[in-house]
Amino acid sequence: MSKLSIAALWIAVMVTGAAAQSYPSRPITMVVPFAAGGPVDTVARILSEPMRASLGQSIIVENTTGAAGSIAVGRVARAAADGYTLSIGHWSTHVVNGAIYTLQYDLLRDFEPIALLPSNPMIVVSKNGVPAKDLAELIAWLKANEGRVSVGTAGAGSGSHIAGVYFQRAVGARFQFVPYRGTAPALQDLVAGQIDLIVDQASNSVQHVRDGKIRGYAVTAARRLASAPNIPTVDEGGLPGLHMGIWYGLWAPKGTPKDIIVKLNGAVMRALADGGVRQRFGELGLEIPPVEQQTPEALGALQKAEIEKWWPLIKAANIKGE
Ligand code: ASP
After folding, report:
1. Is 157 helix (H, G, I), strand (E, B) or coil?
2. Nearest to 245 by CA among 223, 227, 265
């Protein structure tokens, strides 16, 4: 290497180091891939305040919707790798979408993992007008109304859609899927009685079930939710083993300096240790991962393992066309 290029490299290292030291010197944008008020948005907004407190800069939550989150994730893939534009998402945006859409980015190669965030199971919920009192009655009603039941989703390939497809197959009756820009607007329509059902992330619906605005039939997990102990599990309700959970995560564009990733990870880990944050997540049925899994490495490893597990299943199931 010539003297000149060594000097150039040295300057580049110094500049990057200085940028990381003064980071963050302006607000950070966290891009939420679904509508405001929904599951991912809620996780982003709960984390943004304690992260602002520890980073000393505000976190702007931006909702960029469409194509089951892949428009938002693509926006972050193309953003500058300077720690000021982050991608919050989950199992469907950062795993499933790669099997369903032809993406303009690579879910593993174009991102740096920052931290694994909480996870939650789904709950099968219906409008109050559905005349079923438990899961067995709901299944009978779905079969009797084959092809006519409207099921809200956050778009083809979203968590609510994939879970809806698996539920449909377990029940053995076809639904009509209705795509929204997130499950917040889908839930509004469910409460208003415009659609019949959602297989929703627990965090989105649990409060409405508790308030009696909608009916909750089953949690897609082996255990009931501590925050809604009256809702049985799928195993108890008659669909044993239909376990589906969604984990969330936070990513930066590929090439973001390591010290910036470390700072962001520290801010997330401090937020996840905060008593108020833990209580809020608990009320919503969101489970915080153990401390050793809150690292960038743990998120990267989980995402890779989930891609290897789910892509063949999703492709074989031909979920795209449903
Ligand atoms: N994440 C949700 C889903 O995949 C949608 C949302 O956050 O609004 O269904």
Report:
1. coil
2. 223
Q: Ligand 1 centroid to 156 CA: how many Å?
A: 11
The DSSP output letter for 287 is: B
CB 69 near ligand 1, within 6 Å:
no
How many angstroms is it from 39 CA to the middle of ligand 1? Answer: 6
> Ligand 1 centre from 284 Cα, in Å?
15
Question: Which ligand 1 atom is at minimum distance from the Cα of 184?
Answer: 8
pTM (two decimals): 0.91
Res 293 pLDDT > 80: yes
pLDDT digits (tens, 9 = 90+) for 4-42: 555 555 555 555 555 667 999 999 999 999 999 999 999
Share of the chain above pLDDT 70, in %: 93
> 264 CA to middle of ligand 1, Å?
24
DSSP per position, 1-63:
--HHHHHHHHHHHHHHHHHHHH--SS-EEEEESS-TTSHHHHHHHHHHHHHHHHHSS-EEEEE
User: For atom 6 of ligand 1, which residue has the closest CA?
Assistant: 182
Average confidence (pLDDT) over 196-200: 98
Q: Which ligand 1 atom lies nearest to the CA of residue 32?
A: 7
Are 280 and 103 in contact by the 8 Å Cβ rule? The answer is no
The model's confidence at residue 141, banded by pLDDT at 50, 70 and 90, is very high
Distance CA 103, CA 105 (A): 5
Torsion angle of C-alpha atoms 292, 294, 296, 299, degrees rounded to 10: 100
